[in-house]
Amino acid sequence: MASPRIIMKLKVVATRKEPGGVLVVELEHPRKPLLPAFEPGSHVDVHLPDGRVRQYSLCGDAAELCRYTIAVKREADGRGGSAWLHDGVCVGTVLPVSAPRNHFPLNEGHGPVLLLAGGIGITPLLAMSSVLNRQGKPFELHYFTRSRAVAPLLAVIEQAIDGSKLRLHFDDEPETRQDIEALLSARQSDAQVYYCGPPGFMAAIARATVNWPEDLVHFERSTPPRTTTVHRSPSRSSCAMGRRFRFRPTRQRCLQFARLGCY
Description:
Elements: E1 7-18, E2 22-28, E3 43-47, E4 53-57, E5 68-73, H1 81-88, E6 94-98, E7 113-118, H2 122-135, E8 139-145, H3 154-160, E9 166-170, H4 180-185, E10 192-197, H5 199-208, E11 217-221, E12 239-240, E13 243-244, H6 251-259
Parallel strand pairs: 7-8, 7-10, 8-9, 10-11
Antiparallel strand pairs: 1-2, 1-6, 2-5, 3-4, 12-13
Helix pairs in contact: 5-6
């Protein structure tokens, strides 16, 4: 039987609005100077007053344990959790928050790393890029959004990541657009890709990496899927209706679901 998860009562010490309807929330322990350590890709469970639980990736630097940082996108057609956090949280609010856990780990490797983020899917990849940047490992962060005007955390990203490792792609700036299939068609044998974003973005990358070795492709979904969730391998996981599931699909079935936009 799995041991129960630690639930901490953390205080909101800062909030700020980001473009794209995103609220950034910074949390600290009211008595302890340091919070439990976490790895990039980790998430926490935030317990809401009505008993609902929502999972959010930690997007801060894993080396800075004095606080946790999450970014919450308001989902107009969601189930109310994001709306409550946007409307009900302010500095001083106390939230029950779980200790971090990681279903989307950054694996050790010597080859280059491609981080592909769509919109709010930047949150776990921002934490990964901070670690890779500090370690001096070869990587590129590609950030795809509709426009600079709706790109959450853009200022943070541009300040934290060396410009030679950052690629920004905006739908309304043709000169910045990047064809995902072309980006992923030529790869080094030991390259790894990590991606997170909305369903259409996920589907495009799933199609482009269908012939990659499965142990080199890692992903997490940034929004709950509206259809049955199917994964490339049992080691992959993502949020589905607020919970995480594992499957053993065939590669052919994964590609079929990706083409339908259900990935």
